[in-house]
Every structure is written in structure tokens, then in C-alpha cells.
Design brief:
This protein is an alpha/beta fold. The chain is 55% helix and 18% strand. The longest helix has 47 residues, at 339-385.
């Protein structure tokens, strides 16, 4: 529910903080005191367009903050889908509008696009008034009202399951039938791709092996030249090599160490070095025998290397990805090649799914038709109570294309006066009549309506005291399940409220200021009396006001 709204620098309101209780709230005051500004401010929080002309003269911006508490699960879900979570079941929506036209919006202190305000506010508040766009005015919304009171939730669920099954099979058939030439081209392409990969006979890790072999062959001449140079240094060529020289050194030291024993350790080390270098010489000789530049082998490796590179550009960066692509292509090809068999099976499934869908839709249509009749009768009964005895509501249920909601288009037609043909709401009802119609509708669907806050702006326009009293009683009844806010000029309605907020304006130093305050019992007496008698209430009107307050 809307617990509080704070308004700053909006038209004649400099600063105002208004607390609402969770039942029946009324706002009264003189014409022009600022009641419509409160509605404009709530609309701004609901994401509606707000003109910068509403920014208070002399101010650079307007600021509005609305606190909603004990929000419904539907509202929470809407917020969560937009990336915002409740804090203790509470959401604070804030909006600032500057003279430059810039909007700054926040939800629980976090920035939010204005589009999010529009989406989530529809789960929090409904406003019904002279200039408001009623959801009920749109024929497409009528089916929701009928379904809201219909005791056939299981039928709707069953239909939706069957509709999903029907849609999925239908899409498969369309996909199979969609351009036979394309299917044939796709088969040829898949066969070519599979054949190309299969003929390559790839194995995982092969590309890395090829890269190593390719590098060795490309650099074989450089490697061989270097090894021959090192082998010549070790083994010697025209001159003695390192190994031969070290052998001579070793023999010389061995002779000396027999007479000069301290050289024994050095001699042993030289001997070890000689043996190690001699082994290295033999190994390098073996490497020289192995290193051989074979142009044919390099050509084969280059060809294989380029083949894999070409396949990787088409089917995947690695051999593993190429093989995975081939497997998927094989599965897709199997599906396409089994077209006729698949189509026959799908057509059988389609006919079964379609028949089940038609039967489920028929059951749903029957229930909706009966419920629409009952709903219309209930609305007419409520309208008679609200002193609109001539209102006739006629449900029009027509068939449309199958959708997730069925194959029904439901429109509730209205005749407000005797002798007139029932017509769409937009062509019949005035603002005051629409408010009372919506009051009747909301009364009927109250138990299943999750929108917690309902605002009625001047619902009493054009009605008498008797009708106003009945409207007030209905509003009070509705406040048992919803938070109700009502701007009214009728004492009969104001007297029935749980909370009475008075809006007044004053002029100071050439500026207009609006104040909103909650009235106590005595203050309510004087306000009701003012509404009845004008600015100078009589003893009789004060007594009447007291009786009205005590009799609610």
C-alpha cells in the first residue's frame, strides 16, 4: 500500500509529507487548493509524463518520493524482474524533474529508468478519475476481469499446457516444410562438410605434432650445419679436435700423477670430462645421421598442415571443435533425411495436439461465457445500488485466433441510458460514470485483485446526496480488502472515511502555499459542515456532520 508521499516544489505545494492508512482515506478542500497536484504527483511516480510547467515558480526542480509497504508478491516479482529487491517488504520510489527536462528516478536509493516506474507501478496503484486512462476502457483487458472472478484456474492452466505443446509441434512442422529447396541445399551442404571432415581423418593432438615436425624440417639445414660444426670441433677434421686434445692432456697428467700424487684428483676429473665429451661426440654423430632434409616429407607435412588450417577456418579453432561440428552436422543431416518419416509422425502429433487444444479452448469458452454473463449481472446490480439503474452491460464473447489465453475475445458493452444500444465504454460513459463503473467492478473482483491501492479522483461528480452515500458505503466496503484514497466534494463520502486529510492553501508575501493535514474528530465536523453549508457552517449542519461521523 501507499504509506507516504512526499512532495516538494510541485505547483502550489512547496513541501508536503502525507501519511495514509491502509483502509479508507479521503482528501477534501476548497477548489484549487491542490488536490489535483497530489494526483499529478502520484501519476509522476507511476511513470507518467510530468510537464516541467508543474515545477514551482522560482525552483529549479521538483521532487516526489512515495513509500510502498506490504507489497504483494506480484509487485515483488515485477520489481525483481527489473533488478530491484524489497527491503522489509518496502519500496521507495523517487523522481526528480528539473527545468531542463531531465528526470532522475530511483528505487530504494538505486537509479532506475522511467520505464521501470511504468512497469512496476501498475502492480501497486490504480487511479480512477476524470482524466485518467482506465485499463477497463480497453476491450483487450476485459478478459482479465472475467478470468479474475472465474472459478476455472485449472482450465486455464490445462489450456496453456496444450497451447504450448501445439505451438511447439507446429513450429517443427513449419521448420520442416519451410522451403524444400533450402532443405535440399542444406542436405547437400551437410553431406559435403561431413565428407570433407571424414576424409581428413583427423585425430586430437595431430595439429600440434605436425607443427613440431614442420618446424624441425623447415629448420633442418640450419640444425645440421650447426651439428656438423660442433662435431668437427669435438672430433677434429684437418686438425685435432677437442676430444683428441683432451685425450692427450689426460695421458700427460696420468704419467705425471704417478710421481706427483696431488694431481690424482685433477687427473680423474679430466678423465671424466674426456669420457663425457667423447659420448657427446658420438651422440651428435647419431643426430647427424638422423637429421636429413627430405623435401617430399616436408611437402606432405605442409599439405596436411594447410588442410587442417583450412578446416579450422570453416568448422572450429581446434581439431576437437572440428570433430564436434561434424557430429552435430551428422545429427542435423539425419533429421533432414528422415523428413518424410518425421513429418508423418509430427502430423499425427499435430492433429492430436490440435484436437486437444480445440477441446480445451471450448471448455474455457463455455466457462468464460457463463462467467461474463454473471459478471455483467453483478456489475448491473452494483450500478443500480449506486443510483445508475439504467446501466445495461452486455458481454460479447467472440472467437479469435488461438493464443496463450484461449481463442476468445471478450468485450463488455455498456448502455448508460434506456433505448440506447450497448456500445464500447469509450463511446458511452462520462468520467464520473466510469469511476462508479470501476467502483462496481473493483467491488466484485476485490478478493482476487492484487493491486493494493485504489485511488478515486472526484468519483462523486454529478451525483446526488443519496448516490454519494451509497458510493461512500461501497468505498468503505472496498477498503476492507484494499487501501482506498478518494478525493471528494461530498460530505456523505468524507464522513465514512477512516482517515480524513484536509488540503488548504494560503497566500504569504505574494506566494501561494498548500498544506495537507489529518483532521481529528472536531475538525472533521467543521470540514463536513463546510462542505454542506459553505464557509459559515450552522449549528444544524455541525450537528448533522457529527451524526454522520457517529453513524458510519
Amino acid at each position: 500500500m501507499l504509506s507516504n508521499i512526499y512532495i516538494e516544489n510541485v505547483a502550489v505545494i512547496e513541501k508536503a509529507s502525507i501519511d495514509f492508512d491502509n483502509s479508507f482515506n479521503v482528501l477534501t478542500g476548497e477548489t484549487g487548493a491542490g488536490k489535483s497536484i497530489i494526483i499529478d504527483s502520484i501519476n509522476a511516480i507511476m511513470g507518467q509524463r510530468m510537464s516541467k510547467e508543474l515545477i514551482r515558480s522560482g525552483s529549479q526542480s521538483s521532487f516526489i518520493s512515495a513509500t510502498f509497504t506490504n507489497v504483494s508478491q506480484t509487485a515483488k516479482t515485477a520489481f525483481e524482474e527489473c533488478g530491484y529487491e524489497a527491503e522489509d517488504d518496502m519500496f521507495i520510489l523517487q523522481r526528480q524533474i528539473s527545468l531542463s527536462g531531465k528526470n532522475s528516478c530511483k528505487i530504494n536509493g538505486r537509479p532506475a529508468p522511467l520505464s521501470v516506474f511504468k512497469k512496476v507501478s501498475g502492480c501497486l496503484v490504480n487511479i480512477y478519475g476524470q482524466n485518467e486512462g482506465y485499463d477497463f476502457m480497453t476491450a483487450d483487458s476485459h478478459i482479465r476481469y472475467i478470468d479474475a472472478i472465474g472459478d476455472y484456474e485449472e482450465l486455464i492452466k490445462d489450456y496453456k499446457v496444450k497451447f504450448i505443446a501445439y505451438t511447439q509441434i507446429r513450429r517443427k512442422i513449419i521448420a520442416l516444410n519451410d522451403n524444400i529447396q533450402d532443405r535440399a541445399r542444406k542436405i547437400d551442404l551437410l553431406k559435403y562438410q561431413i565428407s570433407e571432415i571424414d576424409q581428413a581423418d583427423l585425430h586430437d593432438g595431430e595439429f600440434e605434432e605436425l607443427e613440431e615436425q614442420r618446424s624441425l624440417l623447415i629448420n633442418s639445414e640450419k640444425i645440421r650445419t650447426g651439428l656438423m660444426f660442433v662435431h668437427a670441433l669435438l672430433a677434429g677434421d684437418e686438425e685435432e679436435g677437442v676430444v683428441s686434445i683432451l685425450d692427450t692432456v689426460n695421458d700427460t697428467l696420468s704419467d705425471i700423477s704417478q710421481t706427483y700424487t696431488p694431481l690424482g684428483e685433477v687427473t680423474n676429473r679430466i678423465q671424466s670430462a674426456y669420457e663425457e665429451l667423447k659420448d657427446c661426440q658420438y651422440e651428435i654423430s647419431d643426430f647427424l645421421d638422423e637429421i636429413d632434409m627430405d623435401p617430399d616429407e616436408l611437402a606432405e607435412i605442409e599439405e596436411r598442415y594447410e588442410l587442417i588450417k583450412s578446416l579450422s577456418r570453416k568448422y572450429g579453432n581446434t581439431i576437437k571443435e572440428i570433430l564436434e561440428y561434424c557430429e552435430k552436422a551428422r545429427q542435423e543431416l539425419d533429421t533432414l533425411l528422415e523428413f518424410d518419416m518425421n513429418k508423418e509422425k509430427l502430423m499425427e502429433q499435430f492433429q492430436t495436439a490440435k484436437q486437444e487444444l480445440v477441446e480445451a479452448a471450448k471448455r474455457l469458452t463455455e466457462k468464460r461465457t457463463v462467467t461474463a454473463e454473471q459478471f455483467s449481472k453483478s456489475v448491473m446490480e452494483e450500478m443500480r445500488y449506486l443510483d445508475m439503474p439504467n446501466v445495461v452491460m452486455v458481454p460479447q464473447v467472440t472467437k479469435c485466433e488461438y493464443s496463450e489465453n484461449g481463442c476468445d475475445r471478450v468485450e463488455l458493452l455498456i448502455s448508460a441510458n434506456p433505448g440506447e444500444e450497448p456500445k464500447p465504454l469509450t463511446k458511452i460513459a462520462s468520467g464520473g460514470e466510469l469511476s462508479r463503473i470501476m467502483l462496481a467492478v473493483k467491488t466484485i473482483i476485490a478478493e482476487k485483485d492484487e493491486i493494493a491501492t485504489l485511488i478515486f479522483d472526484e468519483i462523486d461528480t454529478g451525483i446526488s446526496g443519496s448516490a454519494a452515500s451509497k458510493v461512500g458505503k461501497k468505498l468503505r466496503q472496498l477498503s476492507q480488502t484494499h487501501q482506498v484514497l478518494c478525493i471528494t466534494h461530498q460530505a456523505q463520502i468524507a464522513a465514512l472515511a477512516d482517515t480524513h486529510l484536509f488540503i488548504s492553501k494560503s497566500v504569504s508575501e505574494g506566494r501561494t502555499y498548500t498544506k495537507i493535514r489529518q483532521l481529528d474528530f472536531e475538525e472533521r465536523k467543521y470540514e463536513l459542515s463546510r462542505i454542506i453549508d459553505g464557509d459559515s457552517p450552522s449549528e444544524l449542519s455541525l450537528k448533522h456532520a457529527e451524526e454522520m461521523l457517529n453513524s458510519k
